[in-house]
Amino acid sequence: MQYAATHLVVMGVAGSGKSTLAAALSRQLGWLCAEADEFHPQSNIQKMSQGIPLQDEDRWPWLQEIENWMTTQAQAGNSTVLTCSALKQSYRRLLAQAEGRVLFLHLHGEADLIGQRMQGREGHFMPPTLLPSQLATLEPLSDEEIAAGSLRLDISKSPEELVKTVIAALQLPADQAP
């Protein structure tokens, strides 16, 4: 099946490297890039900043905004790369309703490595204390999601290695120089 647009949703818990990989893929592919954090209402940001985990009722409107954005981009003929935790299969099902081909790139790795990364970053509203709640909520990609083209990626690999893996596995055209 030919799609007018493809959406790569770089997913995983906070600190897994979503923004780094999404930016690298966007540069390599020449596709639009967006951070799901930019779609959060202020109330969600305030909760997370205070160390309060989001609940499903907090996430559904946020996820709907993201799905709407992807559909708008597909209607304009744009493929995208988007960061989004997409921790649950039900969240991914909602996002997959966007027009175009929606594939998930799950960044996974050891909790210690993710925690170290979170400790070292500055200026982000998500505190490291919320990592355990994200890990508890995370539902890994299902066999069906993987069979449909979504990928599970090891965060111990370099961003450059991950970009090459994604482009090769999904047979994507690399429009831009690395």
Automatic annotation (TrEMBL):
A single GO molecular function term of this UniProt record: gluconokinase activity
EC number: 2.7.1.12
InterPro entries: P-loop_NTPase, Therm_gnt_kin
Similarity comment: family membership: Belongs to the gluconokinase GntK/GntV family.
Key word ATP-binding present: yes
Protein name, entry field: Gluconokinase
Record-linked CDD domains: GntK
Pathway in which this enzyme or protein is active: Carbohydrate acid metabolism
Cross-referenced PANTHER family: GLUCONOKINASE-RELATED (PTHR43442)
Keyword terms of this UniProt record: ATP-binding, Kinase, Nucleotide-binding, Transferase
Keyword rRNA processing listed: no
Catalytic activity of the protein: D-gluconate + ATP = 6-phospho-D-gluconate + ADP + H(+)
Lineage start: Bacteria, Bacillati, Actinomycetota, Actinomycetes, Micrococcales
